[in-house]
Amino acid sequence: MKLIIAVIQPTKLEAVKEALSKVEVFRLTVMDVQGFGREQGSPELYRGHEVTVNVLRKIELQIAVNEDFVEPTIRAILEASRSGPDVMIGDGMIAVLPLADCVRIRTGERGPEAI
To answer: Which option is the CATH number for 2-114: 3.30.70.20, 3.40.50.300, 3.30.70.120, 3.30.70.2580?
Structure first.
């Protein structure tokens, strides 16, 4: 089992959810987060003064999957969250972590069956 954490642009959420459903990944957690990477924020006007916003709004997805779904899930997120054919800073990132256990609260199922 793996836990896939993806940080994407907020505008790409619906496209990513649609791409995930095509590869039969229907369970995910969506969080509104802030952060920055290489883009390191951007200048904006606030009450007539230019200020640098050094954290940007992002969406974090957490998806627990069995081993067979790891690569299809990653491919779906990549295809749906890229800005286009040109390389764009700020498109996001994907991390894949080992998931030691998973427990479904409703039934008490554990491990891969709980996912």
So the answer is: 3.30.70.120
Tens-place pLDDT, residues 34-61: 887 776 666 777 788 877 777 788 999 9
Selection from 57, 58, 67, 61 nearest residue 95 by Cα: 61
Could you give phi then psi for residue 73, rounded to 5 degrees?
A: -65, -45
pLDDT 10s digits, 57-110: 899 999 999 999 999 999 999 999 988 777 667 789 999 999 999 999 999 999
* Tokens 């916003």 belong to residue: 53
What is the residue type of 102? C
